[in-house]
Design a protein that fits this description.
Helix content: 25-40%
Order of helices and strands: EEHHH
Number of helices: 3
Number of strands: 2
């Protein structure tokens, strides 16, 4: 998963946009000719693809696996999310 984070100092807010890993987008040449995908190449191609296809400027890149992400959340102390829609959490049925 790709998460774009924007820090807004004037409001002290963090805005986040999640881009699903399998989103189909044109990949800048020459990587498109090699069959590469943005996530299988250096961060530079990913940045170039995001800027080209979504028009979002990217100034810094952090690559983290889930444990790294968990560590960042823990370092901040918590993760607070506000949803306008109610969500029901259901326990999966084991077979």
């Amino acid at each position: 998963m790709i998460i774009i984070v924007r820090l807004v100092p004037s409001t002290r807010q963090i805005e986040m946009l999640s881009i699903p890993r399998d989103t189909y987008v044109p990949i800048p040449a020459p990587a498109a000719r090699t069959g590469s995908t943005p996530l299988s190449t250096p961060a530079g191609l990913l940045v170039q693809t995001i800027q080209q296809d979504f028009g979002i400027p990217v100034n810094h890149v952090v690559v983290a696996n889930f444990l790294g992400f968990e560590g960042m959340v823990n370092a901040l102390g918590a993760s607070l999310s506000t949803f306008r829609t109610r969500f029901a959490i259901r326990t999966p049925v084991s077979m």
